Amino acid sequence: MTDDTKTSNAMWGGRFAAGPDAIMEAINASISFDKRLYAQDIRGSRAHAAMLAATGILTNSDAEAIGEGLLTVLSEIEAGDFPFSTALEDIHMNVEARLKVLIGEPAGRLHTARSRNDQVATDFRLWVRDQADAAITSLTALMKVLVAQAERGADWVMPGFTHLQTAQPVTWGHHMMAYVEMFARDRSRFEDARKRMNECPLGSAALAGTGFPIDRHMTAQALGFDRPMANSLDGVSDRDFALEFLSSAAICAVHLSRLAEELVIWSSAQFRFVAMSDKWSTGSSIMPQKRNPDAAELIRAKIGRVLGAAVALFTVMKGLPLAYSKDMQEDKEQVFDAADTLMLALAAMTGMMSDLTVNTAKLEAAASSGFSTATDLADWLVREAGLPFRDAHHVTGALVALAEKKGCDLPDLSLEELKAAHPALTEAVYSVLGVHNSVASRQSYGGTAPDQVRAQVARWQGLLA
Ligand code: ARG
């Protein structure tokens, strides 16, 4: 299979007599995907060249030629006018080879005191850092939409569920704000990961650092990093930043999928709590009545890709000896796909939630059925009649059974029927059986009472302003 007539690699082929087998080239090359790092690669190279000139390692004129030439390469790539080559393996060598064509000899000096190992680590960190910023921005937009939903519906009563069985009445606003808290934690995970990843690997060279008198603080600063990484072995072999990004993305995707699932349930014919706008629904090619929540279903499913990417990269990294191994080239496609998926899901969820119509009458009717105020009745017996909660629970259970038998709800039972279950029950208990009173009574901090919800809405409006 070996094609001995091919010449060895122009970048590293000094000790090779023949070129690689075609299949070797196919498994080795990363240009098909890492071309996405072109802007980061050129930015990193320009910072490196400027530093090499400032430290006297390169002449100013060579560094200038390199810097200018790299800008030409950048505009060629951006114009879609760049001859990407698989034989040149990756973005780093594609850019450098093109620079050689453009400016000649000085191009060969750019790689002084650098290796592709610290180069790729730097490029990829810059890319992931941008994605963390994008996730933070997208999550902020989604949170604003959810807070607006919560403000509108701070006192809309709906059933709260446990086990997807009607549990107690809650407010729409409270439900929306639960997701605000979840997405806020997601946002802080990306912020936190961003802080930790913001150290610069450039200048770690192949693994051991370099004998050239480089200034790593200068390149770190030029690329917006807080400081250079303190250990060159760690600098080239660390992919924690990608793992942290993927972990944060996976948790965020879990939250998106939970909200998506609620939208699927709530928009079904059996619930009709919400109606998705036409912009976010699709029809069926055979059943004319259908309005399918495809976007919500797809968001629900996307966690599979994001978590899959996390599992894949964790698996690549486990057990890898220090420092760089080619295994690590497998980091990029996973992170690219997870980032694209997450950004799309966040944008779709933000759009769906801002265009959502809520059927408040349906919400309230559902909240009032299913004995949702049974706990309020039991609490009343504890508060007003001094019963131990366990006894109150038992009395209430008997009344639920009676209502169930009669096919009515708790407030429909007569006072005689209530008194027969427990003599301490009086007319006054009816007030707590109404769903509005039920939610209004839940004034504990973080509870579902509209006042509490409005307080949280105000707090978040301040934080998100
Ligand atoms: N394409 C490589 C990657 O993505 C760049 C680093 C290659 N380094 C090396 N020593 N072969 O990991």
Quick overview of this protein structure:
By secondary structure, the chain is mainly alpha-helical. The protein has 3 domains: 22-109, Orthogonal Bundle (Fumarase C, Chain B, domain 1); 116-216 and 226-365, Fumarase/aspartase (Central domain) (Fumarase C, Chain A, domain 2, Up-down Bundle); 371-464, Ribonucleotide Reductase Protein R1, domain 1, CATH 1.10.40. 61% of the residues lie in helices and 5% in strands.
SSE layout and pairing:
Blueprint lengths: L21 H7 L2 H4 L3 H17 L5 H19 L12 H13 L12 H37 L4 E6 L2 E7 H26 L1 E2 L15 H7 L4 E2 L3 H6 L2 H27 L7 E2 L18 H24 L13 H24 L2 E2 L1 H9 L5 H12 L3 H18 L8 H7 L8 H4 L1 H7 L8 H15 L1
Helix pairs in contact: 3-4, 3-6, 3-8, 4-5, 6-7, 6-12, 6-19, 7-10, 10-11, 10-12, 11-12, 14-15
Q: In CATH terms, what is the fold-level topology of the largest domain?
A: Fumarase C, Chain A, domain 2
Major sheet size, sense and barrel closure: 2 strands, antiparallel
> Which structural class matches the secondary elements?
mainly alpha
User: Within the largest sheet, what's the order of strands?
Assistant: 1-2
Number of helices: 19
Low-confidence stretches: 1-5
Mean pLDDT comes to 95
According to CATH, the homologous superfamily of the largest domain is Fumarase/aspartase (Central domain)
* Quaternary organisation: single chain
Task: Identify the CATH class of the largest domain.
Answer: Mainly Alpha
GO biological process, one term: L-arginine biosynthetic process via ornithine
GO molecular function: argininosuccinate lyase activity
EC number: 4.3.2.1
Subcellular location: Cytoplasm
